[in-house]
Amino acid sequence: MKRFWFYVREGIEDLKKNKGRSFLTSLGIIIGVYSVVLLLALGEGIKVYIQDTFESLGSNIIYVLPFKIENGPSGASSFNVKQFQARDYLILRTQIKDSLVVPLIDANVQAVSGSETVSTQIVGGTRDMFFLLNLTLEKGRYFSESESVSSRKVVVIGPDVAEKLFGKRNPIGERVTIDDLPFTILGVLEPKGGGGLGGPSLDLQIYAPYKTVQQINGNKFISAFYVQPSSDTSITAVVSRIETIMSRDRNSDELGVSTQEELIGTISSIFAVINTVLIGIAAISLLVGGIGITNIMYVTVTERTREIGIRRAIGAQKHDIMLQFLALSLLLTGVGGGIGLLLAYLSTLAIRIVFPATITPIAPIIAFGVSFAIGLVFGVLPARKAANLSPLEAIRSE
Fold it and tell me: 197 lies in which domain range?
């Protein structure tokens, strides 16, 4: 081991003498480690982002959708849709009495006030959707049940909508035109943040009675139901009851009932597969870096052939020569891995300003483990070549 550390110190001196060549040799490792660690950090950030998004929308929510995702022989997802209607809402509301049932429908709209226009999404539901989705008022009020039932043209708007349309003016009681229909603003919500999964920001959405949004859509369909069981009710039992009730006039592929945990798990697994593929692609640069190290190590062996012959002549064994060149190879990959990890850490700090990217403890282990493995694998052949040189022929070489 002492001999190995002696060769490590020699290798450091060699790196200092050939700084430019050493950096270029390690560049593939730097890029590879940087890419892998950064992608791992982004993958962890996506997981945290998904969990935070779902938690911010409320807890213990069951999502009832009019389709089920099926994986066919080709691996593609297919959707069989039989839209929900008003009678489905009536059935759920009357037969799942120990839970909060909210119908949801949305539409992309243009909201206009004076000379200001905002392209946004209007979300329709009952008054209960505000409580189920943890949407808190900053000013004004929610629409009432009677306003919801009678399809009144009233809205509660997100803070970004209020700012874009009215600036610093108080929008409560003001009129806003949504797809050529006049609406009265009843309230403004507190800032909530992103909608998750690439969806629109919750702060840039408009909320109205679902029957009113159906008029904008021009149909009587309901997109989905959100169900929130009471605190003393089993979620599993409610899911089972929903499936039993809704399956009476639907095929199995026309109904999807999922809990928050199931959706988070499904979405996280999808992103995990995507992340693995991306990491595999990024790891190609590590392979390229390893090949570069092999080439430069062969060059180094050729340059130091005479030195190797002298070492062998004065008593150095084959394993001593192998250790000398393996130490240099490990240093090249280790330094490259360290620089790549540092750059990934700095990039992650910058990304965290807008996204919760996180470097987990496993990332540095993978980075240095892969780096040193490449150093060993791609340094063995040049090291063996150096060790197998004949002392006499090596000394005679120019």
Answer: 83-249
